[in-house]
Design brief:
The chain is α+β, with helices and mostly antiparallel strands. The chain has 5 helices and 4 strands, in the order H-H-H-H-E-E-H-E-E.
Length: 168
Amino acid sequence: MAIVRAFRATRFARLIPEVVAPPYDVIDESLRAELAERNPYNIVHLTLPQGDEYGYWRTALPERLCILPEDAFRDFALYATEVQTHIKLDPKTKTVSERALWTAESLPTDTLLYAPLLATRSRRKGVVLSAEQVLAEVTRLDLTRTQLGGDETTGQGIVALRMTGGVR
């Protein structure tokens, strides 16, 4: 079972010119190409991805992106999270099963999050892998979609994954 914990953002003591970029909304195609070529870990690979599947986001982000400070995000998470109530029907009688009412909290549709992926050594009994080996195995799987939270019966929690490596 994964252990997920919040952490405070890393703030660099100095800018790392090869991986930073101006705000996404002032970068044209030629500057994006230059920044992407400069370093495979440049932030434009995340903020301005290429490929047809990202076409929606290339259009939506300039119109709808909102970056929140920590206090505002806390309030947003507390008061703007979608809460949906569900029931389970008995397959024979098509009536509500006893004790079959539940609620699910979800991020609003079209929520975009990105975060670093951190690993520890394997804690699975009989499996000895270092943190680096765990990350290598996750990368080797080459997943483009996975389910984080959510419930497969409601079709929620499906996310797109994009592994980009990291700077040590």
